[in-house]
Amino acid sequence: MIAYQFPVEVHSHTIHSDGQFTVKELVESAVSFGYKGLILTDHNTSAGYLEMPAVPAVKDRELVTLHGIEWTTYFGHMLVHDADYDVDWREATPNTIDKYMAEVQVANGLIGIAHPFDMGSPICTGCHWDYQVQDYNHVNYIEIWNSNQPQEKSESILSYEFWLDKLTKGYEISCSAGRDWHRPDTDDANMGVTYLELTEEKLTQSNFKDALRNGRYYVTLGPVVQFNIENKNLLFLMGDRVHHSMLESGLVSVTLKPTELEALKAFSVENCSLTLWNNDQLIYQSEEVQDVSQEMSWNCTLPDAIEPGYFRFEIRGDFRGTKDTLIVVGNPIYLRK
User: Fold this and answer.
1) All domains of the chain, ordered by start, with CATH?
2) What is the C-alpha to C-alpha distance for residues 238 and 4, in angstroms, rounded to an integer?
3) How confident is the model at residue 1 (pLDDT cuts 50, 70, 90)?
4) Spatial separation of the C-alpha atoms in residues 184 and 13, rounded to whole Å
5) Tens-digit pLDDT profile for residues 48-74
6) What are 93-109's pLDDT values in tens digits?
7) Where is the Polymerase/histidinol phosphatase N-terminal domain (predicted)?
8) Beta-sheet strand order (sheet of 76-81)
């Protein structure tokens, strides 16, 4: 099975809220960066999306776009992606957020928690996630990386641990990276990139949304990854839901390639290692590979006993002067009993 990959951005802003881009400038910047998909998530408005069909890159299908909005409240920021209509967020309170999340689901929308551990009041009122969610089955993804240099932020560590906690509790929630793109960046800026992994050769609005819904993507600070597990004449990819026995004694293949995005080529990665996790148990750790300037790969065989829950991979390395940096985080394969 051939997997096709598409870098996308799912958290962006324009002059319709607090961004500096016009809609046309945002689209052109996205194409220039190398994105194949974009979701505009202005604060509490989706007005900018109405301008997108007239922008040449969108009209010519060079860039695939989805409707979005960032609910911006006193108790947290929530990304709502591609709902059929805008759900009214104004009456949501910390104890009633589940009701409003359920309404978004009825509207066929996807839900992401944005920067859950950013500083709140009085520095950034509402940026910290204070909603008391009762059922995290309403949530599709948690933004573990936000804005530029996410690897340097303590908030990223807390968000990553928040996501892992939800996985451990049995929720099938993906992790995402959001550039939270408001304005042109300086040359020394790096950011996390979300890579969709599809079996179709062409990105469309439909498979863009389906990949986000099902967790068929990974987040990276640059390198491009191909990940799969082969077992019993079947191939398993991120986002699959399978019986846990289907992975037992399976062959894991991971290929790592240098970034294909010009803006990130200045930031080299060294001394990379792969780790594999069955729930919160580390079941494989590779030796470090010093030189990752060329394509490289890891292969290993899984144990003959895999526990129900989830299976995932991540890659760490030295990045921008910091050792053992989280470089790539893959979304799980969910393992049913």
Assistant:
1) 4-218 (3.20.20.140), 222-336 (2.60.40.1930)
2) 13
3) low
4) 11
5) 999 999 999 999 999 999 999 999 999
6) 999 999 999 999 999 99
7) 8-75
8) 68-73, 76-81, 110-113, 141-146, 174-178
